[in-house]
Write a structure and sequence with these properties.
The protein is of the alpha/beta class and 118 residues long. The chain contains 6 helices and 4 strands, in the order βααβααβααβ. 52% of the residues lie in helices and 13% in strands. The model has no long low-confidence stretch (mean pLDDT 95).
């Protein structure tokens, strides 16, 4: 059985981020092995990508997104994300991050992958 990995937007973005070559190469290396996993994202990732101002980079990221399974964002996910915020696990400005976590938990992902920026 394949590991289920939910990718937040930062992983898609890092694939094309030449400002940090090491991180970009590591991300591309992961992508070459991604068929060994069940890789998914959500509509939230698409929404965040669409906000990318660089049109070329936006199209590249949307193309990469097409290689992933998209999981639903349910009202239950919104409720759980809000509970994370209400209990101060996330600030209200980090609601999207709380929602990524809620979606990955409720869809029973094994791993939530996120790139932490220095």
């Amino acid at each position: 059985m394949k590991l289920r990995i939910y990718l937040d937007t930062s992983v898609i973005s890092a694939y094309f981020d030449d400002r940090t070559p090491d991180r970009m190469m590591e991300t591309r290396s992961f992508w070459l092995r991604s068929s060994a996993y069940e890789v998914s994202t959500s509509a939230l990732v698409r929404e965040e990508i669409v906000q990318t101002l660089d049109l070329s980079k936006r199209q590249q990221m949307l193309g990469l997104l097409g290689e992933t399974q998209q999981v639903d964002i349910t009202s239950e996910a919104h409720d759980l994300a809000q509970a994370y915020v209400d209990r101060t696990l996330f600030s209200s400005t980090m609601y999207a991050d709380a929602l990524h976590l809620a979606v990955s938990v409720l869809t029973r992902q094994d791993i939530l992958a996120r790139i932490i920026h220095d």
